[in-house]
Amino acid sequence: MALADTLQASWYGTRGTPLWTYPLAWLYGALTALRRGLHRIGWLRSTRLAVPVVVVGNLTAGGTGKTPLTLALVDALIARGWRPGVVSRGYGGTQREPALLDDQPDPARYGDEPCLIRASGVPVAVGRDRPAAAALLLQAGCNIVIADDGLQHYALARDVEICVIDGARRFGNGRLLPAGPLREPLSRLRHVDFRVCNGEAGQGEFAMRLAGDTAVSLTDYVVRPLSSFIGEPVHAVAAIGHPDRFFDSLRAQGLDVTAHAFADHHAFVPDDLAIAGDGPLLMTDKDAIKCQRFARPGWWRVPVHAVLDGGLIDALCQRLDSAAAAHSRSIR
């Protein structure tokens, strides 16, 4: 079993926690607490923009549904008259300097998630220096910035924090990396503004679910219902933080799925997908964005969208109206 698989198994209860991870977890916790404290007292700089900033992130390593939530927030804010833009580190891409994505960005350069978000039509900027990348969005006319996966990146000051929680796996064994899946202690939840659960929500959480019942051809853009695949074997690939969520969603709709999980952000090559032969191959939107340029007939993407608790958007917009007013007063 690979190290990553061993750790995942220990995080979520099917294996014991390796003893060697405990001192590393203590060291990790000490360093993250120090960095957080230095930002809080001002020894490390946090840049505040002239517009409201919403951070969407999580406490755990791996996928929780941050990108679908980000896209849903973008749509909701546009409907309320905002002009949002999204800033990302661009994980998995080679771009290091701040850059604004064009209409046909290369996932190998900018990362799969930023390219997927850009495909929705919203302005997206990437860069290791998130404040500098976010400044490009303001130049592009955005009046609100959403930081995708930015909860632990304190260099960019924020007005609202949203923590996304995996409703199935929650927080695993509750330990810090690498002894557990946590990027920060659970006490960090007390300081976020909103908790959104991808699944059955607990107390103090807003519910979110991912919905999608169609498949779109990567070669001719034909759309067919997922139910039309019932009765024929299909292969499915996923290079996301929690691939079983995708596979289980297909099986829940009655499909006979042979699953192939890859590491999160895996850079697919054609040989990776020869597993399906001439049969249908299903993948997530995040994976399809990387496979489009060498797509073959029979390859399908399964788009999903986040269905949110309406109270979340109302509460968020109230916070944003107050934040926008405060920003306006500060620049007078």
Descriptive report:
The strands form two sheets. This protein has a nine-stranded mixed beta sheet, with helices on both faces. The protein has a six-stranded mixed beta sheet with strand order 10-9-14-13-11-12. The chain is an alpha/beta fold and 332 residues long. The chain is globular. It folds into two domains: 171 residues, 3-Layer(aba) Sandwich (Rossmann fold), CATH 3.40.50; 91 residues. A hairpin with a 5-residue loop joins β9 and β10.
The Rg value, from CA coordinates, equals 20 Å
Strand content: 15-25%
CATH domain topology of the largest domain:
Rossmann fold
Please tell me the overall pLDDT: 91
Instruction: Give the strand order, joined by hyphens, for the main sheet.
Output: 3-4-2-5-1-6-7-8-15
CATH architecture label of the largest domain: 3-Layer(aba) Sandwich
As for the number of domains, it is: 2
The computed structural class is alpha/beta
Uncertain residue segments: none
CA-CA gap between termini: 60 Å
Percent helix, as a range, is 25-40%
CATH class designation of the largest domain = Alpha Beta
Report the sheet with the most strands, covering strand number, pairing sense and barrel closure. Answer: 9 strands, mixed
Q: Oligomerization state of this entry? A: single chain
- How does the overall form come out from the CA principal axes? globular
Order of helices and strands: HHEHEEHHEHEEEEEEEHEEHEEH
User: How many DSSP-defined strands?
Assistant: 15
